[in-house]
Design goal:
about 170 residues
Length: about 170
């Protein structure tokens, strides 16, 4: 049907999934306003013969709409593009999910000049979680569990920058 829409959803328990929402394009649809790009939503998914289907949706937060300036909106878009590029398949990625959620929530916090450094650290953590970057003593603190890495706004060491480049090369993506 022309009112149906397919979404790519990054979930904590199911990984990256394609899900179809019936009648999501219709103006009377309640899902239309909840299923916006760059949104954090609570969604019930049902596995059917043809794939995943969206049941109910509860909007929690739209990171793009709440971004304070152009740089923050660009960082939100770049983060989602990075996830789409690197995370594939229906594998649970709870650590990546929590890192992404914490990073996107912190995009508007702190000094805007450190946004690029925090994005590089997020990229390093993402590549490490996916197995493309090994731990090195010079940046081991940035890969530690928790959200302490968000507060470290010092420039990444040269080994970390090299590890990110090598991680992208090793991923072939």
């Amino acid at each position: 049907m022309t009112a149906d829409r397919t979404y790519l959803l990054f979930t904590e328990s199911a990984g990256m999934v394609f899900a179809t929402a019936r009648s999501a394009r219709e103006e009377r649809s309640k899902q239309r306003y909840a299923l916006q790009d760059f949104s954090h939503v609570r969604v019930s998914l049902v596995k059917g013969k043809g794939g995943w289907r969206v049941g109910s949706v509860e909007p929690l937060h739209n990171y793009y709409a709440s971004a304070s300036d152009r740089a923050a909106r660009g960082t939100v878009v770049a983060t989602v593009q990075l996830l789409r590029r690197l995370v594939t398949g229906e594998d649970a990625q709870s650590t990546i999910f929590s890192d992404t959620h914490a990073f996107l929530a912190a995009v508007n916090e702190g000094d805007k000049t450190t946004l690029g450094i925090r994005f590089e650290t997020f990229t390093l953590r993402l590549l490490a979680q996916l197995g493309y970057v090994a731990t090195h003593p010079s940046y081991a603190s940035r890969l530690a569990t928790g959200t302490v890495w968000l507060k470290d706004t010092t420039t990444l060491p040269a080994e970390a920058t090299t590890a990110i480049s090598n991680g992208f090369a090793a991923s072939h993506l």
